[in-house]
């Protein structure tokens, strides 16, 4: 990293989130760090995204393209960016004003770290806080075996490390971020910042809680299989192969169940049992089932109740 204040590049991939895009952009423009480059890429949106971006003509780089998907869009943005430190913000998420300056301060104090990530809040469609997410320390073995990946919005990483990983995998549509953090974690440490610096929006159009196609539901299995084939994976991590694959099948089963594909759910659950029988009878598996059935509905109920309370005040 260069001495002083290294330039930071943030890419916003925008696809049909015109309702929230303005708030995401303003949260980046409001950063108190002096050297932030913003690139917003309209990834073939069919809503009012173009009109929202027209309001900011000349203030930052705006690109329009045919729909290419999140991974390809982010890779394009980072490739043309100039920052020594890179980050991204989903078009429906937000950053606190000192998110970048805090990230840079921690990177300066941890020269061996390849990236940093903060705590964040879940916010509803009207930007009211639902709850705070206190992210865990990045323990590679736990992330690899348990599928508990702490980085969320507000994460930043060094360009050199991103180049080493080869960027996001454009084949992946459901969990490209999880795959990226696993590959980035092989390059060095990821440091947790114990401060809320971002907002992760939960809303009806959020992919996080939406039913997904069968190929997307099987991505956890593909990701772990690919990581196991990476020669950089330490031996002490590789010995957890069966546990990691079993949990990958559990996550896949959860995604199939959320989409109502019971046959695929049972197939993935059965494979998980053969790989690690204890995992299928664990609290984790019970949580996965509950999440598949109730998570999205639960958040919808919560933000509806909050809205009713605000309107009655």
Summarize the topology.
Elements: E1 8-14, H1 18-29, E2 36-43, H2 49-54, E3 61-65, H3 70-80, E4 85-88, E5 94-95, H4 99-109, E6 113-123, E7 129-133, H5 140-146, E8 156-158, H6 159-165, H7 176-185, E9 189-201, H8 214-217, H9 219-228, H10 235-238, H11 241-258, H12 262-275, H13 277-280, H14 283-312
Parallel strand pairs: 1-2, 1-4, 2-3, 6-9
Antiparallel strand pairs: 4-8, 5-9, 6-7, 6-8
Helix pairs in contact: 9-11, 11-12, 11-14
Written account of the structure:
This protein has 313 residues and is an alpha/beta fold. The protein has 2 domains: 202 residues, Spore Coat Polysaccharide Biosynthesis Protein SpsA, Chain A; 99 residues, no CATH class. Helix content is 47%, strand content 19%. It is built from 14 helices and 9 strands. Strands 1, 2, 3, 4, 5, 6, 7, 8 and 9 form a 9-stranded mixed β-sheet that branches.
Principal-axis shape: globular
Instruction: Tally the structural domains.
Output: 2
The helix fraction, in percent, is: 40-55%
Order of helices and strands: EHEHEHEEHEEHEHHEHHHHHHH
For the record, the CATH architecture of the largest domain stands as Alpha-Beta Complex
Q: What does the main sheet amount to?
A: 9 strands, mixed
CATH level 3 topology of the largest domain: Spore Coat Polysaccharide Biosynthesis Protein SpsA, Chain A
Query: Which range does the strand content fall in?
Result: 15-25%
Which class of the largest domain in CATH terms?
A: Alpha Beta
Number of E-state strands = 9
> Roughly how many Å is the radius of gyration?
20 Å
Distance between the termini: 50 Å
Mean pLDDT: 89
